[in-house]
Write a structure and sequence with these properties.
Shape: globular
Number of strands: 7
Structural class: alpha/beta
Order of helices and strands: HHEHEHEEHEHHEE
Largest sheet: 7 strands, mixed
Number of helices: 7
Strand order of the largest sheet: 3-2-1-4-5-7-6
């Protein structure tokens, strides 16, 4: 990794460490609704949880028999997630890395779940391609983001949604080797945590044909 890229990634790590370190708990502690709705009926296999945060999704998956690899750029939140998994008596492989930099096997996962990930856009579409390439033949991809984000408000908080990958960006790269089963807005009902004020999500669910 070039020095400039190393500095950028390290800066992102520090930002998220600071955010998680400023509170005992940031998110609701419950698995995301889109994940539960789309995955509850699937046969467990190998799962990748991208931007796992405090680990609620990874723990939910592991508790249902999935072999879970969960990655995040924040070591603070990974430590918190690991403690929560221990308390639930489940095993998860926690990986301190960004998606593009992570040592992931091509086609290595039967499920790739990216719930509200902060994946930086790039001209080469690196993050989108990494998500897609990680899905095994016959596997599933789920990408979820908040819908109708107030761009001006987000920019005032130092976050420009245009700088990050959306479900639509991922959908644009899916070809005839994929079947998209859902690509639309969906209502969300969350009563706690930092994202509770969002009422709708944009959800992409796709199946890689075997």
């Amino acid at each position: 990794m070039a020095d400039s890229e190393h500095d950028r990634v390290h800066g992102i790590d520090s930002d998220w460490d600071e955010r998680y370190g400023s509170a005992e708990q940031v998110w609701s502690g419950q698995p995301n609704g889109a994940l539960v709705a789309e995955v509850a009926h699937l046969q467990p296999g190998r799962a990748l949880d991208v931007g796992c945060g405090e680990g609620a999704d990874a723990i939910w998956l592991a508790g249902r028999g999935w072999q879970v690899t969960a990655l995040d750029v924040s070591q603070v939140t990974l430590d918190r997630a690991s403690a929560a998994a221990d308390a639930e008596g489940v095993q998860v492989q926690w990986l301190h890395a960004g998606l593009v930099e992570a040592p992931l096997s091509t086609g290595g996962f039967d499920l790739v779940s990216a719930q509200y990930p902060a994946l930086a856009s790039s001209p080469e579409r690196d993050a989108e391609r990494t998500l897609i390439d990680a899905v095994a033949l016959g596997g599933h991809l789920i990408v979820v983001h908040h819908a109708a984000v107030d761009t001006a408000e987000a920019k005032a908080a130092g976050f420009d949604p245009a700088d990050y990958v959306s479900p639509a960006d991922v959908a644009d790269l899916l070809d005839d080797r994929w079947r998209v089963s859902f690509d639309a807005r969906r209502r969300r009902d969350v009563t706690g945590g930092a994202g509770a004020h969002h009422s709708h999500d944009t959800v992409l669910v796709a199946h890689r044909l075997g």
